[in-house]
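> call design_seq(struct)
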């Protein structure tokens, strides 16, 4: 109901003979959610159309969820959206993606560019062929929109002119390869050929036919044994399914569990939002076992980007050191890539370094995988723009980088054929649901 026309649209659908419509409980409805089911029920009842629901029952449910909703306030879209907006007819961002895309932009330091991102989303959608936008195709459009804003690209002409030297998000490359299927009318050309580097030694190979047709049968028993070997015998079939469908997310979830244990006992508001100084909360582990936790104090950010946080837990003082991800301390500023030097390889956009694929002193060929970056589910593999010797590596796994930060410095004039990189040149073909280490793209300096 992003436009505010949801209730009216659903009423017209019923009048036209629709058998089912999608609506939301009143206290959770409107804006990027579905239209109000209470309003629809009342309007339909007034027209003599029986729904089988009572407004009294709907109100009781609505009041319950009205108390739950504030717990998830950090994920609300109301930071940028206070009411329905007709600009959805222009940018066409699906309601469910609207909030996710804004949160993604905020996390990548692009919150102040939200109007530009909405405009870029419309342009990206048209460049991709005005595709049907459902998960995951809508993510492809969103990733490309964020990427365009970050790199200052506004028009299709600009994108095509720079396509062969850009490090596109992996989702965009896999879309053009056909791993999400083939859109009606085919892929837009010549953009597809330029993104896939068609006709070059490192071209990405398009998928022929249905993407899943060549997938081998999945061995669930083998996956269970592998997970049990790594995480113990508590692995359930639900865990196996999660690992099969979302391997990277499940791996991250298990790593979180192993580091912090179960956090289900922590109140939602304290889990999603930082505690305030002097705030106290009670965590009930089981009957008769409770922890009363109070935030006492915290220090300023130190030179390493950490804060020391002090708690009182059942009368016992406890302190921990945590990384302040929002810190912009000047001492933590990174060297920027030199755009005039081809071998000065910079980050194409803000994100976290997942892995570094080369070592200092090794020789790399053009399009060799250098660094894997991830920014709020958008993954990019940065590759060597030239052949040469890796002179300096400026990042390590886990580092946070900003757009333009120097990642790797390559000396074009020096090579050492006796010490090759551990990774092969670009052009590797990612499989459906493949590791993000596989696709190779070229960085834009």
């Amino acid at each position: 109901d992003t436009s505010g026309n949801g209730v009216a649209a659903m009423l017209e659908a019923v009048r036209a003979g629709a058998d089912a419509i999608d609506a939301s409980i009143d206290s959770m409805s409107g804006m990027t959610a579905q239209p109000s089911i209470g309003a629809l029920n009342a309007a339909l009842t007034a027209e003599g159309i029986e729904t089988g629901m009572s407004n009294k029952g709907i109100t009781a449910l609505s009041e319950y969820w009205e108390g739950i909703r504030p717990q998830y306030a950090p994920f609300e879209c109301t930071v940028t959206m206070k009411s329905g907006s007709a600009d959805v007819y222009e940018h066409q961002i699906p309601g469910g993606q609207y909030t996710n895309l804004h949160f993604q932009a905020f996390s990548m330091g692009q919150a102040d560019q939200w109007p530009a991102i909405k405009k870029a989303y419309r342009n990206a959608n048209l460049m991709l062929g005005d595709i049907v936008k459902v998960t995951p195709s809508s993510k492809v459009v969103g990733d490309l929109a964020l990427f365009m804003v970050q790199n200052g690209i506004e028009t299709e002409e600009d994108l095509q002119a720079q396509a062969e030297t850009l490090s596109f998000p992996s989702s965009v490359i896999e879309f053009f390869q056909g791993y999400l299927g083939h859109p009606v009318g085919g892929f837009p050309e010549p953009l597809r050929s330029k993104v896939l580097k068609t006709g070059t030694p490192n071209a990405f190979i398009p998928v022929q036919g249905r993407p899943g047709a060549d997938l081998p049968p999945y061995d669930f028993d083998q996956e269970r044994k592998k997970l049990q070997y790594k995480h113990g015998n508590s692995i359930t079939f639900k865990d196996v399914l999660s690992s099969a469908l979302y391997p990277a997310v499940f791996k991250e979830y298990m790593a979180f569990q192993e580091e912090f244990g179960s956090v289900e006992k922590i109140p939602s508001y304290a889990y999603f939002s930082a505690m305030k100084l002097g705030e106290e909360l009670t965590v009930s582990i089981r009957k008769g076992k409770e922890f009363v936790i109070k935030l006492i104090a915290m220090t300023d950010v130190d030179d390493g980007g950490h804060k020391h946080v002090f708690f009182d837990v059942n009368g016992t003082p406890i302190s921990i050191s945590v990384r302040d991800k929002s810190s912009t301390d000047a001492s933590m500023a990174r060297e920027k890539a030199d755009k005039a030097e081809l071998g000065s390889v910079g980050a194409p956009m803000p994100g976290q370094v997942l892995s570094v694929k080369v070592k200092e002193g090794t020789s790399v060929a053009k399009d060799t995988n250098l660094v894997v970056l991830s920014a709020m589910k958008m993954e990019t593999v940065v590759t060597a723009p030239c052949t040469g010797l890796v002179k300096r590596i400026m990042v390590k796994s886990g580092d946070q980088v900003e757009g333009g930060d120097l990642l790797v410095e390559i000396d074009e004039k020096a090579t050492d054929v006796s010490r090759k990189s551990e990774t092969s040149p670009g052009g590797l073909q990612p499989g459906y649901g493949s590791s993000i280490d596989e696709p190779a793209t070229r960085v834009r300096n």
